[in-house]
What does this fold into?
Amino acid sequence: MNRKHGLLGIVALFGLLPALACTGISLTAADGSYIQSRTIEWGNSALESMYVIIPRGQQLHSLTPGGEPGLSFRARYGVVGLAVVEQEFIAEGINEAGLSAGLFFFPQYGSYETYDAAQSARTLVDLQVAEWILTQFSTIDEVKAAIDGVRVVGLEANAVVHWRIGEPSGRQVVLEIVGGVPHFYENEVGVLTNAPGFEWQVTNLNNYVNLRPGDVQPYKLDATTLRAFGATAGFLGLPGDDTPPSRFVRAAFLRATAPQRATAFATVQECFHLLNNFDVPIGLEHPAGQCPDIPSATQWTSAIDLTHRVVYYKTAYNNTIRCIDLAQIDFGKVRYQSYPLDRVQQQPVERIAVK
It folds into this structure.
């Protein structure tokens, strides 16, 4: 447990950095395959990130702010997760039943129960909620039925998060905890960013009722004819900044106008293409001359095929798409393990030989 106490200062940074600009988009292929994708940002340094394999039967424990033993739980399902800082802090993942869960930062608007050491045995810290969901449940309804049985608290007051949970059927919900009370929202828009709350973000889409895909016809303004300068003028006014409300609007419209692809992997590729629009250049995050030496605030991007149970990811250091197929893992025999997303932080380059 002493090793974990050293994490608190690291976790505290999450609530202070402006670069936590996570964006999530989901798409369904023509063959019914359902994909959930997202970016994860960290604008201060290279974020320690890893993939984690959790076998069935693995005994797990939650941290607590006071250092007392927290909730203890045994994995009912095998899990592949993408974690940050420590292997317990799964930011995005899927279990062998096809349930997917991930966290998105939710500063200023979410708030948990106050930590009570007397109730530490049922206490679950926010950065381990995804780990708990993925190891314990196979459906969204099971999560909803169980959430009141745990006390979710934060390791640091500024580092509040909310969660996206999805099923292979294409059903997706957003879980937000406000004033210690869990709220579940059906996510029919298929996108998620950060603050404000999900209901506000959906309502805010009404401010962009004029946006349309395609071109705009010339318009007569008195004696002057107005013509578009180029294609996609119907999207003139789509917000381009990286604030969470603007990213939510942009993601919603890009998702809604994306062509439906035939297969799961084609849809995975479409998700990666869409999320390229949400890469956060590191220069936006810091005053001139104070940028850390990292390629981007967008540290990694993932796309998870819930139908076929395959995790795809790429990173700021290596844009090659890598994948982990849960069907190739025997969760009854595999050991609990984690490895860096990048064994080497270097982009492979294919050299073309010209004769």
Remarks:
- The first strand starts at residue 24 and ends at 28.
- Residues 2-196+260-340 form a domain with the Penicillin V Acylase; Chain A fold (CATH 3.60.60.10).
